[in-house]
Write a structure and sequence with these properties.
Strand order of the largest sheet: 2-1-3-4
Shape: elongated
Order of helices and strands: HHHHHHHHHHEHHEHHEHEHHHHHHH
Number of helices: 22
Number of strands: 4
Structural class: mainly alpha
Helix content: 55-70%
Radius of gyration: 31 Å
Mean pLDDT: 91
Length: about 425
Amino acid sequence: NAIDSRKKSGTLSELAPIICQVLSNRYFPKTQTDRRTFNLSIPSYYHDWDWYKYCRSWDGHSVLKELNLSIDNIKSIHQLLSFDARHADPLERWYGLVNFVSLEQKRKLKGNALLAQSIYSMEHMIRLFYKELTGEILFPPDEDFSWKKDDFYGEGVTDNDLQYLEFLTNEFHLNPKPKLILIVEGNGEAEQVPRLSEELFGYSFPKLGIEVVNAIGVAGFTGRKKVDRYGALEKFIDYYHNRQTIVFVVLDNEGRAEKVKNKLIKARSKYHKKRFVTKPEYIHLWERKTIEFENFSLDEIADAMSKINKGEYVFTPVDIENCQQASKEKESDHLSRLFKEKTGYDLPKPELLKALSDSIIANGKNEFDSKGEPVRPITKLIHRIIKLASMNHQPTCFETWKVNQDSGYFGDIKE
C-alpha cells in the first residue's frame, strides 16, 4: 500500500527506502560486510527463524510482481541510489578502501559519511535484487560504462580480494608489507645495523619499510644436510621477490658463503621463468671475512674488546692483527678464541659490535667525506640499503607489478 501510494504521488527515490525495507530480510545481511565476511543479526524474538532457509524459499520475481514494479524501475532506482550515495559521501574517493573496513569501524562514522554508508547498503540490496531477477550485474557506485576498476587494476583483480586489497593499500600507502628484508647472521648485526641507520642517517628502518631477519648463521637458512643446503634461502628470496620485496643478504665470507652466493645468483625463479632468483648486488659478503675485520681498525677492535672485558685484560692491536692473519689461513672465530684465552669466558659478540658501533656514532662527522658520502664499508652498505628500500615503489595495479617483475630489478633477466 505504501509503495502504491508513493508511486502515485512521489518519486522513484522516495520509493527506495520502502522497497529496501521489503528486501531487507533477504539482502541486508549481505551488505553488512568487509568484503570477506558478512554480519547476520537476528532479533531474539526471531529465535526460530532460519535466514538460510528463508533465502532458499525466496522468489524475487514474485516479490517484484507484488511490488507492482518493472525491471526498469529497479534499475532506475539503483542509479538514483548510486548517485545519492556518491553525492552524500565525503569519502567517495576512498570507496574501494572503505569497503574492506570492518563493519564495527564503519558504524563509528558520523554525519554524511555514516549517511552514505546507509545509502550504499540500499544500493547494494537493489543491485543484488536486480542480479537475482536478471542475472545481470549492475555497476557499483565507483564504476560506470566509461570506466571499470579492472581497467586500472587488471582483469579479474577485483574478484581476488587479497590481490585487490594489496594494490589498494599500496595506493594509499597503508600496506605494512616490507619493501626490503635485510638478512643478517647474528644478533649484533640485527641490533646495530638499524641503530646506525637511525643515528648516522636519521632514517628508521621500520619507517622505510625495512625488516631485519636474523638468520643466526647462514646454516639457519641453508640447513645442515648436504643436499640443497641453500634451498631454503633460495625459496625465501624467490617468494618475496615475487611479492616485490627486495631480499638483501649480508654474510660473513666464511665456510660455504661464496658457494651459496654463486648458487643463488644462478638459480632460476620458480615464478618467472625469464629471470633469475636474485641479483649479485643483493648478496653482500664481507671481503675481509667478518664484519669486524672489514669495518674496523685493529685499534678500534682492541679498544672495544678491552671495554667489554671491563679492563681485566687490555687487548692490543697486535693481538687483533694476529687473529686477522690467522683467519686468512684457517677459517675460525679467532676473535672469540682470543677472548676466551685471555679472559676465561666467551666473547659476547653482540656487545662487541655495540661497542664498535658506539665508536662510529660518537665520531659520526668523521664517517662522511667532504661530499657527504659515507666512507666506511658498513655505512656505505646501510646507505645503499636505504636507497633500495626508498626506490622500491609498490605496485598499485597488475600491469605495474608485471613490468617490475620483468624489468630485472629483482633478478637478472636470462639471455
